[in-house]
Amino acid sequence: MFLFFLIFSTILWLLIKLSHQYVDNITYRVELVNLPSNKVLVNSENLKINAKVSAVGYKLLQYKLFKPLRPIQLSAASSKRQGKDFFILTSSQFNEVSLQLGSELKLVDISPDTLEFSLSSVVKRTVEIKPQLKITYAKQYMQSGSFKLKPNRITITGPASVIDTIKSVTTYPLVLDEISDTIKQELVLKPIPDVYYSQNKVSITLPVEKFTEVIYQIPIKCINLPSGYEVQFSPNSVKVSCNVAVSKYFLVKPELFNVACDYNEIEKSQSPKAVLKLVSYPNFVSRIQVEPRQVDYIIIKK
Question: Which Pfam families match (predicted)?
Answer without folding.
Answer: YbbR
